[in-house]
Design a protein that fits this description.
By secondary structure, the protein is of the alpha+beta class. It has two domains: 6-232, outer membrane lipoprotein receptor (LolB), chain A (Clam), CATH 2.50.20; 249-450, Clam (outer membrane lipoprotein receptor (LolB), chain A). Helices cover 16% and strands 37% of the residues. It is built from eight helices and 23 strands. It has helices at residues 6-10, 33-47, 130-142, 153-159, 249-256, 349-358, 368-374, 444-450, and strands spanning 29-30, 52-60, 63-72, 77-83, 89-95, 98-103, 119-122, 161-168, 171-179, 192-198, 203-209, 215-221, 266-276, 279-288, 293-300, 303-310, 313-319, 334-337, 376-381, 387-391, 407-412, 415-423, 426-434. The strands form two sheets. The chain has a twelve-stranded antiparallel β-sheet. It starts with 5 loop residues before the first helix and ends with a helix.
Length: 451
C-alpha cells in the first residue's frame, strides 16, 4: 500500500474517459517497425532520466487551467503550483494514489518542498471539484510514462498510429496515438493518449482526455535546468524515496536490541495521523513500557479527547483543551476491552499506531540471524548522525515484500525514534523522545477493564 498500483487506477470506471474518442487526424497511418520500437523504449528511457520541469494545461469548465511543476520519474513524484478558485495558489504533491496540498510557499521557486502542514487525500476518490478531478486524472496518467523495461513493440505496431509531425520548443517531433501503457501482462490498457516524441525518443508532450471534450496536455520542458535535490515527498506521502536492501550484520544486531532497549523505559510521543481526505489528526503524550501504558491527548475533527491504551483495551474521554492532565481524571472515561464485539467501531488508524508503539518493547532480544533474513534497510537519513529507516516483522504481522510492509521504523543510535504506518490517506507517524518520568497512576476502575 506504500505505492498504490497504477494499473488499479487505470482500471477504474473513471479512467475510461481518457480515451481520445473520435478526434482522429486524416493523416493517421500505422506506425512503422522503427517507430514502434521508439515508442516501446520511451518509458524505460524516462525512468532513467533526470527530473524534468513540466507545464500542464487542463480544460476545466470551458477554461484552460495552466499548472507549472516538476516530475520525478523514478519516484514517481509530481510537485506543482496550482491556481485556486479564489485567485490564489497552492502547492500540490502527487504520488500514485495520493495527493497532498500545502499553502503557497516561496520554497517552490527554489525547487524545494516546505516542511509541515501538508494535507493528504486519496486520488480519484470521487466527489471532487472539476479542477481537482482533472488534475488527478492527468497526474495519474503521467505516472504511467515510466517503467523498468521496454514495452512490447509488436503490440504497439498493432495498436499505435502515427499522427503528425511538427516542432515543440524548437525540437523536431512526431506525434503518435497509442494506448496508455501500464505494467500489465499486455503492456497496455484500452484508454488512449497522444505521445509526442523527439528524434531521440524523448517525450516532449503528452495529451489525454481528463473527462471533457478537450485534451489536457503536458509539455516536458527539457531545456530548463534546475537542481532537483530538493524534490522530496512530504512525510505524509512517505518521505524520500527508498531502495530496499538487506541489512548487514551490524545493523541486524542493532535491530535485535531495539525492542529490549525500550523494556522498562518510557518516552514522549508526537503523533500525526491522516484520517480522511484533507483531515490530519495530531496528538501528544507518552508511552510507558514499564506499565505498558500509552496516554495521549488527540486533536481531530471532533475536537480534543484523551486516549488511554493498555494491553486489554482502551479508554477515551472528551476534553476542551490540548492539555494532558496529571493525575488522570477519575471519572468520565468510556472503556472498550479489546475482546468486546464493538471494539472495531472505536479502533481506527490512531489506535492502531498507538498500539504498535506499545508493542515496540520486549523483555528478550530477537535473533539477529533471523532479522538479517527478514528485515530490510529502506534508506539512511541524517548524514553524520545516521537514522536507519527499516522494516522488520513483529509477531502477527502479515508477510509483505520489501518496501511494502504496513509499518516502518526509524532507528538512531540503537534506539527507536519514529514509527510510521501506511493508511488509506497517507503515512501516519509517531515520533519518540526517550526520557524517564514517574509512572502514570491509572484509576483502578479503569485499569480493571483495560489493564
Amino acid at each position: 500500500m506504500w505505492g498504490l498500483v497504477i494499473a488499479v487506477l487505470v482500471g477504474t470506471a473513471g479512467w475510461m474517459a481518457v480515451s481520445c474518442g473520435a478526434d482522429r487526424s486524416d493523416a493517421e497511418r500505422p506506425v512503422t517497425e522503427d517507430e514502434a520500437q521508439l515508442l516501446a523504449g520511451m518509458r524505460s528511457r524516462n525512468l532513467d532520466s533526470e527530473p524534468v520541469a513540466v507545464r500542464m494545461t487542463l480544460p476545466v469548465e470551458g477554461e484552460q487551467l495552466t499548472v507549472d511543476g516538476y516530475l520525478v520519474w523514478d519516484g514517481p513524484l509530481l510537485y506543482a503550483r496550482v491556481p485556486t478558485d479564489d485567485g490564489s495558489q497552492q502547492l500540490l504533491q502527487a504520488v500514485p494514489g495520493l495527493v497532498a496540498s500545502h499553502e503557497d510557499d516561496p520554497a517552490f521557486d527554489e525547487v524545494a518542498v516546505p516542511e509541515g502542514d501538508w494535507s493528504p487525500r486519496r486520488m480519484l476518490a470521487g466527489g471532487a471539484a472539476p479542477a481537482q478531478s482533472a488534475f488527478d486524472v492527468l497526474a495519474s496518467s503521467m505516472f504511467t510514462l515510466a517503467a523498468g523495461r521496454d514495452d512490447d513493440p509488436g503490440y504497439l505496431a498493432e495498436h499505435a498510429t502515427w499522427r503528425d509531425e511538427g516542432l515543440v520548443d524548437g525540437a523536431q517531433v512526431e506525434t503518435f496515438r497509442a494506448p496508455i501503457m501500464v505494467d500489465s501482462g499486455t503492456g497496455a490498457a484500452s484508454p488512449e493518449a497522444l505521445y509526442t516524441l523527439d528524434e531521440s525518443g524523448d517525450i516532449r508532450r503528452f495529451q489525454v482526455n481528463t473527462g471533457g471534450g478537450e485534451l489536457a496536455s503536458v509539455d516536458f520542458l527539457r531545456e530548463i535546468e534546475f537542481d532537483p535535490s530538493g524534490l522530496e515527498r512530504a512525510d505524509l506521502l512517505g518521505g524520500p524515496p527508498i531502495e530496499p536492501s538487506e541489512v548487514d550484520r551490524d545493523l541486524s544486531e542493532t535491530l535485535a536490541e531495539v525492542r529490549t532497549a525500550n523494556w522498562e523505559r518510557s518516552a514522549t510521543v508526537e503523533l500525526e495521523v491522516p484520517i480522511g481526505n484533507d483531515q490530519v489528526a495530531t496528538g501528544h503524550g507518552l508511552v510507558d513500557w514499564r506499565t505498558m501504558t500509552a496516554y495521549l491527548n488527540i486533536a481531530d475533527t471532533d475536537g480534543y479527547r484523551l486516549l488511554l491504551a493498555r494491553p486489554g483495551g482502551l479508554a477515551t474521554q472528551a476534553t476542551d483543551s490540548d492539555e494532558l492532565p496529571q493525575p488522570l481524571p477519575e471519572e468520565g472515561w468510556e472503556t472498550h476491552a479489546l475482546d468486546d464485539e464493538d471494539v472495531t467501531e472505536n479502533f481506527g488508524s490512531i489506535e492502531t499506531i498507538v498500539y504498535r508503539m506499545l508493542e515496540m518493547a520486549a523483555r528478550e532480544a530477537e535473533d539477529p540471524d533471523k532479522l538479517a533474513e527478514q528485515a530490510s534497510l529502506l534508506r539512511v537519513d541524517g548524514g553524520d548522525e545516521p537514522v536507519y529507516v527499516v522494516e522488520f516483522p513483529v509477531a502477527g504481522d502479515a508477510e509483505a515484500a520489501a518496501g511494502q510492509s504496513a509499518f516502518r521504523y526509524h532507528v538512531a543510535e540503537g534506539r527507536l525514534v519514529k514509527v510510521e504506518m501506511m493508511t488509506l490517506y497517507g503515512v501516519a507517524s509517531g515520533r519518540l523522545e526517550h526520557e524517564e518520568y514517574p509512572m502514570v497512576a491509572i484509576p483502578w476502575s479503569i485499569n480493571e477493564k483495560i489493564g
